[in-house]
Specification:
This protein is α/β, with parallel strands linked by helices and about 280 residues long. The protein has one domain: Divalent-metal-dependent TIM barrel enzymes (TIM Barrel, Alpha-Beta Barrel), CATH 3.20.20.150. The protein is built from eleven helices and eight strands. It has an eight-stranded parallel beta barrel with strand order 1-2-3-4-5-6-7-8, surrounded by six helices. β7, α10 and β8 (about 260-265) form a beta-alpha-beta unit. α6 (about 135-160) packs across α7 (about 170-180). The longest helix is centred in the middle third of the chain and has 22 residues, at about 135-160. The two termini are about 30 Å apart.
Length: about 280
C-alpha cells in the first residue's frame, strides 16, 4: 500500500461524534480538563427559581470567570418545574413567559446559544390518536404560540436557540409539528433518549426512531440510560438502551445536515466513566 493510499484510507475513517455534558456550574472545576477538548456544555443552574430570582447577573459573571477560555458550544437547561408552554389560562401563560424570558436573559449574559424547554404534550390515550388534527392539535399549537412567540422573539434577539425536549411524548409527530410551526432556526428539537426509551414501553417508537424522525430539525440530544421503568439518568451501559442503534441514528442525521449537541445528562461524577464506556465501543469520543 502506498503512502498516498494510506492517507486516503485515514481520510475516509468517520470522525466519531464528540460528547458534551450537562452539569451545575459548581462542577465546572472538577470537569474542566475534560470540557476543554472543545466539548459542548449545558449548565443546569437556571432550572432553579433561586438562581433566576437572585442576583443572576453576578452568578453569570462568576460562571464566565470559571469557564475562562472554554471553546465548546455553551447552553443552559431552562426553567421547567411546574411550567407548561401550552396553557390556555392567560395568567398561567404570563408566569411561563416571564420565567422563560428570564432564562434567556441569563443565557445571554453567559453567551449561551441553546436553552432546553420541555414539550407540552402530556399524552392520555393511544399515541396515534392523542394530539392529532381531529383531537385539537391546531388549537394546542395556537396555545403554544400564545406562550412562545414572544419568547422566540427574544431568543432570536440574543442568538439562543430553544430546543424543545420530549418528556412524556409517545409520538414524535406533535412535537415535530410544533417545531415546524415556528419556521425558525431558533426553534429545534431535543431528544432525550432515556425519555424515549421509557415511552417506548407504552407504545412509542424507539430512541433511534425518534432521532431519525427529527432529522435535520434535531438540535440537541440528552444521553442517559435507564431500565424502562423510571427516568434513572444512569450512565450509558447501565440500562438497556441500544446505544449502537442510537449512534447510528445520530450519524444519519448528521449526514442530512443536523449538528446536534450530544449532552450526557447523568451524575457529574459519572460523566468520565460514561464517556469512556461509549468511546470504548467506538461510538463517540
Amino acid at each position: 500500500m502506498t503512502v498516498s493510499s494510506q492517507a486516503v484510507q485515514i481520510q475516509n475513517v468517520p470522525v466519531l461524534p464528540l460528547l458534551g455534558a450537562a452539569m451545575p456550574s459548581s462542577q465546572l472545576g472538577a470537569r474542566r480538563e475534560w470540557l476543554m477538548a472543545g466539548r459542548d456544555l449545558e449548565l443546569q443552574d437556571a432550572v432553579s427559581h433561586l438562581v433566576l430570582d437572585g442576583d443572576w447577573k453576578a452568578h453569570a459573571a462568576s460562571i464566565k470567570t470559571q469557564l475562562g477560555d472554554f471553546s465548546g458550544r455553551l447552553g443552559i437547561h431552562g426553567p421547567f418545574w411546574g411550567l407548561t408552554i401550552m396553557a390556555s389560562d392567560p395568567a398561567v401563560r404570563a408566569v411561563t413567559v416571564a420565567r422563560l424570558k428570564r432564562g434567556l436573559e441569563f443565557a445571554a449574559e453567559l453567551g449561551a446559544t441553546h436553552m432546553v424547554v420541555h414539550s407540552p404534550f402530556d399524552f392520555f390515550g393511544h399515541p396515534l390518536v392523542a394530539h392529532t388534527q381531529v383531537t385539537g392539535l391546531s388549537d394546542q399549537l395556537s396555545q403554544v404560540h400564545d406562550t412562545l412567540d414572544e419568547v422566540v422573539g427574544l431568543a432570536r434577539e440574543v442568538g439562543c436557540t430553544l430546543v424543545v425536549e420530549n418528556i412524556r411524548d409517545l409520538n414524535p409527530a406533535p412535537l415535530l409539528a410544533l417545531v415546524r410551526s415556528f419556521d425558525s432556526e431558533f426553534v429545534r428539537v431535543s431528544i432525550d433518549v432515556g425519555h424515549a426509551h421509557l415511552t417506548q414501553q407504552k407504545g412509542g417508537p424507539s430512541p433511534e426512531q425518534w432521532i431519525m424522525e427529527a432529522g435535520e430539525l434535531l438540535g440537541h440530544v440528552h444521553l442517559q440510560d435507564n431500565d424502562g421503568l423510571l427516568d434513572r439518568h444512569w450512565m450509558p451501559g447501565e440500562g438497556n438502551i441500544n446505544w449502537t442503534s442510537v449512534f447510528r441514528a445520530i450519524r444519519h442525521v448528521q449526514h442530512v445536515g443536523a449538528a446536534p449537541r450530544l449532552i450526557l445528562e447523568i451524575k457529574p461524577e459519572e460523566i468520565g466513566p460514561g464517556a469512556e464506556w461509549l468511546a470504548g465501543r467506538g461510538l463517540a469520543r
